[in-house]
Specification:
Blueprint: E1 2-6, E2 9-13, H1 21-28, E3 47-50, E4 53-56, E5 69-71, H2 73-76, H3 83-90, H4 100-113, H5 119-126, H6 136-149
Parallel strand pairs: 1-5
Antiparallel strand pairs: 1-2, 3-4, 3-5
Helix pairs in contact: 3-6, 4-5
């Protein structure tokens, strides 16, 4: 058994210690907002927060997060009132939408650390989160909107 805290709630899960956090979230806790993209921490679709830091959950063994706090897209704001979630809708960011939870979680760590990031700050921080549809300009616009209106 591994004890983890996800979105403020403690869970005891019966998994091997090397099980990636992504699969614990999706398969055991049924939190399917976090997506599988590549499985090698190269695309960012599986981004969650661990103690406030953006982490690729596909490459994070669940045993390494015991005693830490995990936040998924479902826990960022259950009623979709987070400034990034509102900006994502206003800027019509998603096309297919698959990468969006990872994009939002990555962006949230930027805005938590920098309330008024420059375009260059945004591009540098979001590097590593891939959008197969190529909505990067809308992603940047949404982050800038969230910073302004947040």
């Amino acid at each position: 058994m591994v004890a983890i805290t996800v979105n403020g709630e403690r869970h005891d899960v019966a998994v091997a210690p090397e099980t990636p956090l992504l699969w614990v979230l999706r398969e055991h806790l049924k939190l399917t907002g976090t997506k599988f993209g590549c499985g090698i921490a190269a695309c960012g679709a599986c981004t969650v927060h661990i103690d406030g830091e953006a982490v690729h959950s596909c490459a994070m063994p669940v045993s390494l997060i015991e005693g830490k706090s995990v936040t998924t897209i479902e826990g960022l704001s259950p009623d979709r009132s987070h400034p990034l979630q509102k900006a994502w809708i206003a800027e019509q960011v998603p096309q297919c939408g698959y990468c969006q939870s990872g994009q939002i979680m990555q962006a949230a760590t930027l805005l938590a650390a920098n309330k008024n990031p420059s375009r260059e700050d945004i591009v540098a921080h979001m590097d590593g989160n891939i959008c197969r549809c190529g909505t990067y300009l809308r992603i940047i616009n949404a982050i800038q909107r969230a910073a302004r209106e947040g």
